[in-house]
Design goal:
Family: Belongs to the TRAFAC class TrmE-Era-EngA-EngB-Septin-like GTPase superfamily. AIG1/Toc34/Toc159-like paraseptin GTPase family. IAN subfamily.
Pfam families: AIG1 (PF04548)
Radius of gyration: 57 Å
Number of strands: 18
Distance between the termini: 137 Å
Protein name: Golgin subfamily A member 4-like
Keywords: Coiled coil, GTP-binding, Nucleotide-binding
Structural class: alpha+beta
CATH topology of the largest domain: Rossmann fold
GO molecular function: GTP binding
Strand content: 5-15%
Number of domains: 3
Length: 691
């Protein structure tokens, strides 16, 4: 038995078991003192050929010994490094066992004798053999070849495992993408179906709205025709004489009347809400002066100076026993006023004059009438229609303002004024009023007359004041819905973007982990090749045998090629990882854009659904309410007509035959019989009786 000097352990063969028989041979070898050989390197040589290598917990056998050679793996912990050889045939070679750790190497040589000459009985013999330097070089080369083969096998196994893992990931990703594609297609189909249903519902709602509008127009035309055909009321009287009281006079049209209004009307209009409209001329705000004059205030010097206001203001007070509210607006007709500022100030005006103004007073200074038309009046006509609609002209009056004694006859002045101002007055159904504005303000009588005219104008309308309540409520509701939809859309979009960002970060982290693992594996393999290359280069320099040197150079060249190949693969992995990262970023950006586009479209569709669900039914309900009010008003008028007819019949029965045959004195006025016949031939009554 032989062992290296200055070692912490040595190898030995225990006594007994010297005779081996059969095809399985055990070459016993143990560490002394007993210690674990799991972390050590164990090499068995047959002659100079390495037939078994145990290193880093992995065992590799030489070519031709696969399945025939093994160690006692469970006994390595106890220091048993014995070799098992199956299908053994005697060759006469000696077997060398090398066990080494980082500091110590121990050797043990054993041989087998065949005294029976082929009968299968062998005797173990310890050899005290001195291995030459050439033999040891050949041993190192053989061991290096086995180690390289083991590393190549391990690398191949790692690559196979990596390929299997990548294949599994690819299959999982493919399955996930197919599932997402199926879900996306299903969602698209559902959205297409929902869009088609919404389009159908919208078309149906449009048709219903058009039909309701058409019916409303027909009813309005019918009501107008009936109103035109209704004669004035006949006052009840016990007299049977044909005097002017028996005649049904037509209601006169009152223009610029200074007569008082009935007490009942004055009681009903204890509150007046007025809105002042007009231009700001040369920095002077004539409207503010008029607003102050209505409440008995003197003209302020500030009103003659340029002023800047951000919105309409309001004055409230008691004038001639009435609660009066005056809203002084901005210059809505100024071309320098933006649409946003106009829209905001209109909202302020509507709020200040809630629930609606009784009259719009269009302030026109006399100097504006005297000067040559600049087209501003046309702009006033158009702007009034745009803001309040054509219905506002029923509640609008032109307020002509003079300073000192500029004009004596207002009627003549207006009739002879420029054409555009005449159009304004005609649009207001010839309603206008003149105020003489001086430094002391306006005469109280002119203010009282103005308020009477306003009450007179309002008294002729069923709706006592201008109101756009339905449209304002609808606009406010639509704005509220739009804001809510925008908020919900932003919340959903932000949630989707957060989820997409989290998914991207997870993929990035996963890719980085895989890249680090793959890079570490490549670098480990490259380092192993570098160590072998260094060893082979040293062996090539020391080798003297040309044939052996050529073999080592071939091994060295293969190692260099494998190292270069690994370096190329590592570089390719880095480039592929960078491409994947950029592609991932592009997909993320595309997903974010698709999320924004999808939710913008969904928000629009949702707003349309809410509009059809909430706004259109409200408008329809309001339309039906208006029709019902018109019908109710018509029924009241028909009942009044029935009562008048009954009174005429009673009077006719009370008349004597002589009175009936008495000729008419005033042929210019219709008699009682003609009035009675006119009522009987009233198409409204005939229509009611037909129904």
């Amino acid at each position: 038995m032989a062992s290296a000097s200055n070692t912490d352990f040595k190898l030995y063969r225990p006594s007994g078991g010297d005779v081996q028989s059969g095809s399985v041979v055990i070459l016993p070898c143990y560490l002394h003192p007993e210690r674990s050989a799991v972390e050590m390197t164990v090499r068995w040589f047959r002659g100079t050929e390495c037939i078994c290598l145990y290193k880093d917990g992995r065992m590799t056998v030489g070519r031709g010994y696969e399945g025939r050679i093994s160690l006692f793996s469970q006994e390595l912990e106890k220091g048993n490094v014995s070799l098992i050889i199956r299908d053994y045939s005697w060759t006469g070679d000696d077997y060398l066992c090398q066990v080494s750790n980082k500091e110590t190497t121990a050797e043990f040589t054993v041989g087998l004798d065949d005294p029976t000459e082929g009968l299968g009985a062998y005797i173990l013999q310890d050899r005290d053999r001195k291995w030459t330097e050439d033999e040891r070089k050949k041993m190192e080369e053989s061991a290096l070849i086995i180690e390289l083969s083991a590393d190549a096998t391990q690398s191949l196994e790692m690559k196979n495992k990596k390929l299997e893992k990548e294949k599994t990931l690819i299959m999982e990703e493919k399955s996930r993408l197919q599932q997402e594609l199926g879900e996306t297609q299903q969602q698209l189909q559902e959205k297409d179906t929902a869009v088609k249903n919404m389009e159908t519902e919208l078309e149906h709602s449009k048709k219903q709205l058009e039909r309701i509008e058409e019916e409303l127009k027909k009813k309005n035309r019918k009501l107008q025709e009936m109103e035109c055909m209704l004669p004035p009321a006949v006052p009840q009287s016990g007299s049977v004489e044909l005097d002017p009281q028996d005649v049904i006079p037509a209601r006169p049209r009152r223009r610029h009347s200074k007569e008082g209004i009935p007490p009942g009307m004055r009681e009903a209009l204890l509150e007046l809400r007025l809105v002042l409209l007009g231009r700001t001329e040369h920095g002077e705000d004539m409207k503010s002066s008029i607003g102050a004059a209505i409440f008995g205030e003197k003209r302020r010097s500030q009103d003659r100076e340029p002023i800047v206001r951000e919105q309409s203001d309001v004055r409230r007070g008691v004038v001639s026993g009435r609660q009066v509210t005056v809203v002084d607006t901005l210059d809505w007709f100024s071309p320098g006023l933006s649409q946003e500022a106009l829209r905001n100030d209109v909202g302020v005006c509507i709020n200040l004059s809630s629930p609606g103004p009784h009259a719009f007073l269009l302030v026109v200074p006399v100097r504006q009438v005297e000067e040559e038309s600049t087209g501003e009046e046309v702009g006033m006509l158009e702007r009034m229609g745009e803001i309040f609609g054509e219905r506002c002209w029923r509640n609008t009056m032109v307020l002509v303002v003079t300073e000192e004694d500029q004009v004596e006859d207002v009627d003549e002045f207006v009739r002879s004024g420029n054409e555009e101002v005449r159009r304004l007055v005609e649009k207001c159904e010839e309603r206008y009023h003149c105020l003489h504005l001086g430094d002391g303000g306006v005469d109280e009588s002119e203010i009282c007359e103005l308020l009477k005219k306003v009450e007179e104008m309002v008294g002729g309308h069923r709706d006592k004041f201008y109101s756009s309540e339905v449209y304002l409520e609808a606009e406010a509701h639509i704005r509220e819905i739009e804001e809510r939809v925008v908020r919900e859309r932003e919340e959903i979009r932000e949630k989707q973007e957060r989820e997409a960002e989290e998914k991207r970060q997870r993929n990035v982290r996963k890719s980085e982990v895989q890249f680090r693992e793959s890079t570490a594996q490549f670098r480990e393999q490259i380092n192993q090749h570098e160590v072998r290359i260094t060893t082979l280069e040293t062996m090539v320099k020391e080798e003297r045998d040309e044939k052996r040197k050529l073999e080592l150079e071939n091994h060295l060249e293969r190692e260099v090629q494998q190292r270069n190949k690994l370096q190329v693969e590592l570089q390719r992995l880095k480039e592929q990882t960078e491409r994947d990262r950029r592609a991932m970023e592009e997909r993320h950006q595309q997903e974010m854009e698709e999320i924004r586009e999808v939710y913008e479209g969904e928000a629009r569709m949702k707003a349309e659904r809410v509009l059809r669900k909430n706004i259109l039914p409200e408008l329809k309900l309001r339309t039906l309410e208006l029709v019902a009010e018109k019908q109710k008003d018509l029924d009241i008028r028909l009942k009044e007509k029935d009562r008048e007819l009954e009174r005429l019949r009673i009077r006719l029965q009370e008349m004597t035959p002589a009175q009936r045959d008495e000729p008419q004195i005033d042929t210019q006025q219709p008699g009682l019989f003609s009035c009675f016949w006119k009522i009987l031939s009233d198409p409204v009554l005939n229509t009611q009786s037909d129904q």
